[in-house]
Amino acid sequence: MTLEPDLRDALLAAVPSLRAFAISLSGQVDRADDLVQDTLLRALSNIHRFEPGTNLNAWLFTILRNLFHSDYRKRRREVEDPDGSYAGRLVVEPEQGAKLDFEDFRTALSKLPHDQREALLLVGASGFSYEEAAAICGCAVGTIKSRVNRARFRLASMLQVETDDDLGPDSMTRAALQTSS
User: Residues in domain RNA polymerase sigma-70 region (predicted)?
Assistant: First the structure.
């Protein structure tokens, strides 16, 4: 591609102004130089869109400004991690364990006696107080507390939950997650 000498000279003459504008936008000389270079590349690849007789500087400044804002939006979502240490600490537990645990819970819940399941769901899942649950079930508050306690104990027994460590990922998954971080 050959440029007309006047257009080439006008592009070169715009570089100092473009650089000053890029520095004012980015606050970094290196970043500003990259912006100016990207602006000139974009302008040259789209020179056929420039209308001779219009303001070349305005066209170039618009390109630079748009490149800066596009890059700013992109960089806002990025995390600088040159040595990969941040990415190395990111750990996601596998989903299948939680899905299987939930299915086990649903199965165990369905095996509870109706009155215990009802009391547990009212207090534990629906957030009703013991008093409200007792009023809904038409029984004493102590009866609801007893049903909820027995339901929790039975669920823990069916699901083989003895300590807090039994909740969440299994020991092999926990070990794998710890060695990767």
Answer: 16-77
